[in-house]
Design a protein that fits this description.
3 domains, 228 residues, four-stranded mixed beta sheet, 6 helices, iron-sulfur cluster binding
Length: 228
C-alpha cells in the first residue's frame, strides 16, 4: 500500500490560546487524534511559526507518551503492527522457538558470570559455566526443552559455541579476578557491574525497557561513568 499521498490537516489550540496547524502526511495521516490527546512532534518540517508538516521522510509523531511501550514490542511493530499491539494487550505463555530459547539461556549465563567475584572461588571456563547451567538453570527449563523436543546433549552442543565467546569476552574485558581489564573498543575500561536488568523509560518518546548490564567504566580521560 502506498501511503505517500495520504494527507490530513489538523488545527490545534494550545494554551495560552495559540493556534497551530499540523499537516500529517504519508504514514502519519491515519494517526487517531482526538480532543484531549497528548501529542509530541519530533523534528517536524517547519513551514512557519504556526504551521508544521510531518510525513514519511521527516518528523515523528508521539501520541500519549505516558503510555509506555516496551522497546521489543516497538521493534516487532516494524514488521507487523497488529502483532506488536496484540502481544502487548494479551500477555501469556507465548511459544518460544529454538533460537530464542538458546539466546535466553546464553543471556542468563552471561549475566550470572559477570557477577562472580573472588569470594565465589570459581575459575571461569566454558565447562564450568555449562556445569552451572546443569545444576542451577536446567531444572527450571525442562518444560521448554520438552516442548522443543531437545535433549540435554543437543542443547549443550548448541550452547558450547556461545559459552566459549562469553568466557573469552569476560576474560578480556572484566576487571580482576575475572578478567584482564583490557580496554573496550571505545577506550574505556570496566571497573564493575553497576546493575543487571536495570529498568529504563522515557516519557518523551513513550518507551520502556531493561538494560542487560549497566557498567561502571573509566574513560580515556579518567572520567567514571555508568554506561549500558
Amino acid at each position: 500500500m502506498d501511503f505517500r499521498f495520504w494527507n490530513r490537516r489538523v488545527s490545534i489550540v494550545i494554551k495560552p490560546q495559540r493556534l497551530l496547524r499540523f499537516d500529517y502526511k504519508g504514514l502519519w495521516a491515519s494517526s487517531p487524534l482526538s480532543i484531549g490527546s497528548s501529542l509530541r512532534l519530533i523534528d517536524p518540517k517547519r513551514i512557519s511559526d504556526k504551521e508544521f508538516v510531518v510525513d514519511t521522510d521527516r518528523g515523528v509523531v508521539i501520541m500519549d507518551g505516558d503510555t509506555l511501550v516496551p522497546c521489543t514490542t516497538l521493534m516487532q511493530g516494524l514488521y507487523c503492527r497488529r502483532k506488536a499491539i496484540l502481544a502487548d494487550r494479551f500477555r501469556g505463555g507465548g511459544s518460544t522457538n529454538k533460537a530464542m530459547f538458546i539466546g535466553n539461556i546464553v543471556h542468563a549465563l552471561f549475566q550470572y558470570a559477570v557477577r562472580l567475584d573472588e569470594r565465589s572461588g570459581a575459575k571461569l571456563s566454558a565447562e564450568w559455566l555449562l556445569n552451572e547451567w546443569r545444576e542451577k538453570f536446567r531444572p527450571n527449563q525442562l518444560q521448554q526443552m520438552i516442548a522443543l523436543n531437545m535433549s540435554s546433549s543437543q542443547l549443550e552442543n548448541e550452547l558450547s559455541v556461545y559459552l566459549d565467546s562469553t568466557v573469552d569476552w569476560i576474560g578480556r574485558y572484566m576487571p580482576k579476578p575475572l578478567g584482564r581489564s583490557e580496554s573496550l573498543e571505545c577506550g574505556s575500561r570496566i571497573e564493575q557491574i553497576a546493575d543487571i536488568e536495570e529498568n529504563i523509560w522515557d516519557h518523551l518518546i513513550g518507551i520502556k525497557g531493561k538494560v542487560d548490564a549497566s557498567l561502571k567504566v573509566k574513560t580515556r580521560s579518567s572520567q567514571t561513568l555508568i554506561e549500558p
